[in-house]
Structures are given as C-alpha cells and as structure tokens.
C-alpha cells in the first residue's frame, strides 16, 4: 500500500469518528472540576462522530437545537450528579433528541423535561433510572420505531396536565428473511403516572418475532396502556398494577397484511399473550380485549392469578367478534366489586379455571353470543343484578361444564329474575352443557324479586343423561312449565310429593 493511500485512509477515519473517551456536559462548566467540559451545543453539531464514548451530564443542560446521533456505536449519556436533567427550549417546535441507525446506546440517570426523544432503526438500546416529564399544555413523547433489543428499567413517565407518552412501534421488514429473526423488548420497574401513557403498535406481521416482558410496571392516573398488536410475538405482563386510569389496559388485535406475511419451513407461527399476577382497580374500565379485523393467526391469551376489583364500570371485557381462532384461558383470577360486572361477548374459545366473581352491582358475569368452558372451580358470590345476579346467559350463549368443574352460587340477588343464574328465554340455544355426571353445583341463599331465586330459564343439556350433584338440594328454580304439579304449599316441600297430572 502506498504512503499516499495510507495518509488518505487515516485522514478519512479521523474525520468520521472521534476516538473513544469521556466528555463532560454542563451549562456551567466554570464550576465543574472535570474536563473536558462543554455545553451540549459544542458536541451537538456532529454527535455522529462519537463512538465508544461516555457523555457525563452535570446539572441542568438546556437544548436550543436538535441533538442528532446517526450510526453511532457504544455511546452512553449518563447523569453524573444527583439531579442531572436535559431541558428542551419551551415553545420551539421539534426540539428533540434523535437517535438513528445506532448500536449499543445507553441513557441513564437523566431527567428529560419537555423533550421529545426519538429512537429509530437501532439495536441494543438501554434506558435506565431516568425520568421523562412534560410541562403543562405541551405534548412530548419518547418514540421508538424498530428499536430492537430495547430495555427500559427503573424509569418514570410523568406529566402535569397533558401528555408524556411512550410510543413503541414494530414495523415490518422490507423483505422476508431466510430464518426467523428474534428481537426483544423489556420494561422493568417502570411507572406511568399523572396523565402519561403508553401505546404499543405491532404491525410487523411475521417478518420477525418479538419477545416482550413487562415486569413490575405501574400505571396510575393515566389515559391508558394501549396495545394494538398483530403478528408474531410472545408478550408477558407480570407483577404489574393498573389503577385510577381511564382505560387500564386496552388490547386490540389487528389483521396481518399480505406484504408483512412470511413463512419459515418447519416453524409453526403462533403468538402468546400472558397477563399474570397483575391488579386492575379503581379504573372506569379494567382489562379490555377485542379485535377490529378477522384474525387468521393462531393466538393464545392467558390471564392468570390476576385481581380486577372496584372498577367503576367493567372489570373484564372481552369481545371476540374477530377472535374466533383465539383461545383465551382465565385461571386463578378474581373479579371483585366491579360495578357493571364483567362481560364476555362473541367468543367461542374461552375457559375459566378457579375464577371468583363477587360483589358486582350489575350482574357478576354476562355471556353474549359466547361459548365458555368451566374447567375447574367457578364461584359467584354476593353479586346483584336485574336479570341474573350472578350469571346471565344471553344471546345463544352456552356454558360448558367439564368433569373437573365445581360451580358455586352463594348470596346473589336479582331484582327481577334469576338471582343465581338467568338464562334468556328468547332462544333455546342458551343452555348449560354437562360433559360428565355428578358435577358439583352449590346454590345457597340466592334470591330474586319476582321469580327464580337460584335459577331462571336454565336448560341443562345432557346428551348422556348426566346430572349435577346438588350440594344443597333445596333450590328455587323457575323456567317455562313442562309439567303441572298441584300441592299444598304449606305441607308439601318437594316435587316428588306433588299430585301429578
């Protein structure tokens, strides 16, 4: 290699990248002992030249112009003292921090005030121990678009009046890969409070798979967490709480376009959404699941060990109109004190195991055009309604009771009909289907204002002549008459002692 070529290459390399090092950033460098120290504006002119670099922020740093990092590697922005912050100039449009096409970028121990932060097409991004806040009457956000292997931990999103929202987008790749690609997203110990929120949009189809874990996420006094999902993913929300919000957690499934559909030989594409050990309380609406398009992909939703209580309207609402191929399993979950109860609509693949529904003031659980299977214990206690205190089976719905099931209806009341269970009279398709004999059924102290204290209009379908095992045989049941029995109500207490005609 000629000497001239070596000189040219060395010059080109030095002009594109600064050697690794550490720099100090402050608006008041005269009082900073560390060096080199400069205001951020000194570095911001061409942040893309810094690789393998740590920027230490001291005190408050004000941004008057955009800060852009493009194609950098191994760059860290770290707050050094107890209250480091980056403030964007108020009322200046589009003043923001931009990170594009970069790898291994870390933001830690920094408070962003009224700043928009955008991260696009980057890998291995970590945000930790940071705060994102907005001033009154201004709208700011942290938005990521195809930020793969993103980690956000020990951070707070807050706002005084309007929004500071976290937006996360997963978009399809332009072409299908020969092998299925895997990426990750992790939120750990993250708080959304005081008017902030989060929206997750997954429109990547099957061009890659995303593994998402939300662990110890708290959402309080916010608009909502909105998940609009489609495609290939595993999503786990665990040990998290949602309270005093408008919509606590709103999950909307969307269809997959042909342009974002890829196939992989020998791999069955399916997605799983797990909500485990979470609490939803003091919201107008708790957990809402629906779809706006027909879903052809195999989805599996698991709600496990959750508590939904004291929500103003519904605690749990599922509309499976376009989720006919989606299996939803609700396990070890309590629905307590939700005023308008809980509702399952247009669903045909839902199972309940060890579920308790209690203290609702407008029917504990309503089924509309749905088929629900009881796999284990299902308890209705102290619910109140008009037609159906505990359970209402409406619009051609059916309750399928498996051999391991155990049903309990205790202290429920309907002001009109069916204190324990109400089955709508308008259709003969509303029924309880027994899959085995001697399934345990407990009916204790259920009442109704008009008729059917325990049961009203309930038709038990048993193709094999299976019957419930009544733990308390003295029940109050009313439906359409199929036989007349004359008796003295003061002396005759059982149907067998009547004079039959």
TrEMBL record:
Protein's UniProt keywords contain Signal: yes
Which keywords does this chain's UniProt record carry? Signal
Q: Which species is this UniProt entry from?
A: Amphimedon queenslandica
Signal sequence interval, chain numbering: 1-21
Protein name per the record: Right handed beta helix domain-containing protein
Keyword Signal listed? The answer is yes
- Stretches of the chain forming a coiled coil according to its record: none
What domain of life is recorded for the organism? Eukaryota
Q: Which InterPro entries does the UniProt record give?
A: PbH1, Pectin_lyase_fold/virulence
